[in-house]
UniProtKB/TrEMBL annotation, chains A, B:
Pfam families: Alba. It comes from Ignisphaera cupida. Gene3D superfamilies: Alba-like domain. This is DNA-binding protein. It comes from the Archaea.
Length: 91, 91
C-alpha cells in the first residue's frame, strides 16, 4: 500500500509484499515524478524498511542520498507501535 | 552484550535478552558514567532497538534527547546485515 505522492514525495508503506516489489516501486517512482521517497516501516516491518533502504542505496549508488531517518512510536488501534521513516532524495 | 564505554559513550548491542534488561542497563549507565548511550540493533533486532529507544524516551522524558540515527549494512560472516545505531544523549 502506498499513498499518492504529495508534490514530489512518494511514501511507500512497508507491508507483507515481497521486498523486491517495494524496490521496483521505489525505482519506478524515482524515474518518474518523485524527487523524494519516504519509506515507512512499522513494528516488525522496521527491519525490512532498513533493508529496502540498503538495497536501493547499493543499486542506485550516488544517484540518491539519505535525507533523513526518523524514529518514534504511533498509536495504532490503541496500541503503541514503533516506526521508522527513511527519506531518500534523488541527487 | 555491551562494550566498555569509550569515554562517556556506552554502546548497548541488542541481543536476545528481554527488553527490560536493556532498559535497566541504559538507565543505570545514564545515572552513572555515561553521557551518551548508543543502541546498536542488527537484523531482526532493529525493531527492538527502536522500541528500546521509545521506551527510554517515554520513561526519561526531557532528561534525554535523540542525538543521531544511523542506518546501513554490515558484513557479518560473509552476509550483508542491516543495522541501526541510535544515539541518545543526557541533557
Amino acid at each position: 500500500m502506498s499513498t499518492a505522492p504529495t508534490g514530489n514525495t512518494k511514501t511507500i508503506v512497508l507491508g507483507n509484499r515481497p521486498l523486491r516489489e517495494y524496490v521496483l516501486e521505489a525505482i519506478v517512482s524515482l524515474n518518474r515524478e518523485a524527487d523524494v521517497i519516504e519509506i515507512l516501516g512499522r513494528g516488525r516491518h522496521i527491519h525490512r524498511a532498513v533493508t529496502l533502504y540498503n538495497t536501493l542505496a547499493s543499486r542506485l549508488g550516488d544517484r540518491v542520498t539519505l535525507k533523513n531517518v526518523e524514529i518514534g512510536s504511533l498509536l495504532i488501534k490503541g496500541r503503541r507501535v514503533s516506526y521508522i521513516k527513511i527519506s531518500i532524495a534523488k541527487k
